[in-house]
Amino acid sequence: MPGEPGHIPVLRDEALEALRVSSGGFYVDGTFGAGGHCAGIAERAGSAGAILAFDRDADAALRAEALATRVDAQIIFVNAPFSEMAAEAAARNFDPVDGVLLDLGLSSLQLDDAERGFSFLREGPLDMRMDSASGEPASALLARLSEAELVQLLYDYGEERQARRIARAIVRERANRPIVTTTRLAEIVEATIGRPPGARIHPATRTFQALRIAVNDELAELERGLEAALSILGPAGRLVVISFHSLEDRIVKQFIAREVKGCICPPDQPVCTCGREPRLRSSGRPVRPSDAEVERNSRARSAIMRVAERLP
Ligand SMILES: C[S@@+](CC[C@H](N)C(=O)[O-])C[C@H]1O[C@@H](n2cnc3c(N)ncnc32)[C@H](O)[C@@H]1O
Description:
about 300 residues; Rossmann fold; seven-stranded mixed beta sheet; 7 strands
C-alpha cells in the first residue's frame, strides 16, 4: 500500500521491521509527510490497529484523510509538532503505544514546492517554515539577527566552516536590499565562498540547512519529541528514528545511550544517588540504506536509522 505519489519513504521496510508492527497494534507516526511509512504501518496493523499521526505541516491533513479511506486501520491525524504527542495521545486514551516512528526533516513534497522556500534550486520566498501558519520565516530571521548571531547559527546548525564570511556577506547585502528569495541567498553564498571543483554539494547547502533548523527549532523539538515518545511507549514498545544529518543523529544516539544507561551520577561516584533506572534497550547497530535504495532515491543517501526498545 503506497502513500501519496511524490515522496519515496526512506528505509521503509527496515523501519516497519524495526517497529515490529503487529496486527491490532497502536502506533504513533510523528512525521506523517506523504504517508508512505504510515500506509505500511496501517497495512500491517490491520482493522484492529490504529495510528496517531502528526505533522506540523497542515498540507498533510488532506493526505492523511485520503489514506484513512484506503486502509482498514484507524488513522487519527493531528496537525501539531510531534513534541506534543504525549499530551495528544493521553487526551485520546491512545497510550501506551506499541511503537513510535520519527522520520525527520522534510518530505520531497515540501522540498519540491518552490513557494515553501526550502530549496536553493527553486526561486521562491525565503520562508522554510514547516508550519506556514506560525513562527518567523527565514527572511525575517536573516533580517533580524546580528552578524555575530548569524555566524553562530551557521556554525551550530550548518557546521559551516565559512560561517564568518557568509555572515559578513549577508549583512552587507541586506543593507542594500532585503534578502527575501531562495535564489538570492544561494547566489550570495555562492559568490562569497565559491564552488570548489568536484564539490559534492551546492555551496549553499549548509546555509540552508542551518536556517531551516533555526526557523523550525528542529533540534530542541527533537529532544522534546524523544522524551515524549519514551513517556508513551508501553513495555517492549519500539522507538524508531530516521535522521538525515549528524546534528540530529547525535541527539538520537546520545538520548538512547543515556536511557540505556539510566544512572547519570559522575563515573567516579562509588554509589548511585540519582536513582535513575534504564528505560531503553538499544536494538543493535544503526541501519543505513542499501546502495540499491540510494540509487533509487538519492534523498536516502544520508539517512541513518536508530532503534530502541522500552524496558518493562
Ligand atoms: C521526511 S518527511 C516524512 C515522510 C513520511 N515518513 C512518508 O513516508 O511519507 C518529514 C515530515 O515530518 C514533518 N515534521 C518534521 N518535523 C516535525 C515535527 N517536529 N513535528 C511534526 N512534524 C514534523 C515535516 O513537515 C514532513 O512532512
